[in-house]
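Lab channel / #folding
Pinned by the channel admin:
"Please post every new chain as: sequence first, then the structure tokens as a reply. Keep commentary short and put observations after the output so the thread stays searchable."

First post following the new format, from NK:
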Amino acid sequence: MEFIAETVCRVCGLDVGEVRFDEAGCSLHVVCDCCGTESGYGDERVNQVRHLRRSWLDRGAQWHRPKSRPLTWDLQQQLAGIPPQWL
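Reply from TO:
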């Protein structure tokens, strides 16, 4: 199986260009500024990712680090950036 580096949060779709999973598929344990998920903890399988996403959305899609939220943030646009294999 061939991997490519992942920069998109599997849970919320935030992509600030920071590598979360490297080319070997190993987590770099990056904490998402938006949803607060740490890559490599609970986001390895699609059912886990869906559960984390639903929990985050049910809590109002609050930002983990509110100061990082762009002024023009659009939740639906960000969610549309989630790679298909993690939907």
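NK: The chain has a mean pLDDT of 95.
TO: also worth noting, Residues 1-87 form one domain.
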